Amino acid sequence: MTDIQELLLSRIRDVADHPEPGVVFKDITPLLADPAAFTALTDAFAEIATRTGATKVVGLEARGFILGAPVALRAGLGFIPVRKAGKLPGATLSQAYDLEYGSAEIEVHAEDLAAGDRVLIVDDVLATGGTAEASIQLIQRAGARVVGVAVLMELGFLHGRPRLEAALDGAPLESLLTV
Ligand SMILES: O=P(O)(O)OC[C@H]1O[C@H](OP(=O)(O)OP(=O)(O)O)[C@H](O)[C@@H]1O
Ligand SMILES: Nc1ncnc2[nH]cnc12
């Protein structure tokens, strides 16, 4: 494990039985409170944005907003929010999905993405992959291309990576940490 991976891992707190029994919740608030760790994470994601030739960064509500916005600025790119249903005021595209604990629906402003856009999706945790898969579908339906998915932590035992393989169509899934 690299020094940066050790730093990031040390700032993620396991919370048993949240938000429901049996789930070990990966809490990133200690990482957000540590500027050295937050900067290291932002730099690592920004390098992925540059390497994949991304033209836009999409962040997934809510933790993907916190992580994705500084990545977009660091990489010199625009930031596009994918929000939970009912929050965006303009014309939207919607996608329903299941995640590790429950189900939800996400939306993007249709006008925010277009053919020719190369999107890096940023989020904190890849668990079952339901959220990431729905966001890939949403971005593709908006006419844009997903050039990568970047997550802080992948929960390997929930098999999100194989689930995303078809939707990614060769684009990389970059996880900084795998448990
Ligand atoms: O791979 P999956 O099983 O889909 O789970 C991963 C998603 O779950 C969490 O978001 P959540 O919907 O809890 O939203 P939040 O960031 O608003 O807490 C996390 O931030 C990912 O977006
Ligand atoms: N175990 C977990 N911890 C944090 N976020 C999650 N999203 C889905 N599963 C999660």
TrEMBL record:
InterPro entries: Ade_phspho_trans, PRTase-like, PRTase_dom, UPRTase/APRTase. It is found in: Cytoplasm. Keywords: Cytoplasm, Glycosyltransferase, Purine salvage, Transferase. Pathway: Purine metabolism; AMP biosynthesis via salvage pathway; AMP from adenine: step 1/1. GO terms for molecular function: adenine binding; adenine phosphoribosyltransferase activity; AMP binding. It comes from the Bacteria. Homodimer. This is Adenine phosphoribosyltransferase. The gene is apt.
